[in-house]
Amino acid sequence: MNKTANRAALTVLPAALLGIIMVAATISSCYASTFSGDVITFTNLPSAIKIDPGSQASFDVTLRNSGGIYGDVDITTRSLPDGITVVDNDCTKLVDMGKSVTYHLTIAASKDMEPGTYHFEIADRSDVDQHTWATIEVRVGGRSIVATTGVTPEAEADADAEQSPGFGVIVVASALLLACHLRSRV
To answer: Among residues 100, 122, 105, which one has the least CA distance to residue 40?
Structure first.
């Protein structure tokens, strides 16, 4: 190759690459485009979650996609206090453009968790959006025995049994969790 051909190739190559980059950046569903901001955001967060030591508590959070691209999104956590664990953070869900999706989360407090107010953070996690962290307040209460009411432990157990949803609810919830887990593996 002569010098003129080399110069022509060096001039055309950068122009062609620039053209490809510009075309890719204008395609709305192209992952090569840069984030223009936080488009998947929390629209519904609990003000506080109340939980007793040795128990579980569930709560819902809602994410809204205000962007021009859909995304597979799940919920991630950080800064969990000692004694608090995430039992279920729901599955990865498709959050379509202009739509909202609700996630059902469950946390557990260890039996030896001290009563008090704690905090942890949650965020949306996807490949199409930056993470924005939100703080969740957890109020861990204590168990107390009320002797002045005249309620015996047997009567309290009977009342609890009457309010219990029963074994069928546990079976249905377990089947739903298994189906959700299997669907996320596909």
So the answer is: 100
Q: What CATH number did the domain enclosing 103 receive? A: 2.60.40.10
Residues 50 and 113 in one domain: yes
One-letter amino acid at 60 equals D
Helix (H, G, I), strand (E, B), or coil: what is residue 13?
Answer: helix
Residues 73 and 162 in one domain: no
Q: What is the mean pLDDT of the chain?
A: 77
Write out pLDDT tens, residues 44-68: 999 999 999 999 999 999 999 999 9
Per-residue pLDDT band at 41 (split at 50, 70, 90): very high
Distance CA 22, CA 150 (A): 77
User: Cα–Cα distance between 52 and 54 in angstroms, integer?
Assistant: 6
Q: Which two tokens stand for residue 77?
A: 């956590």
Q: Residues near 74 by Cβ (< 8 Å), separated by ≥ 6?
A: 89, 90, 91, 92, 93, 124, 125, 126
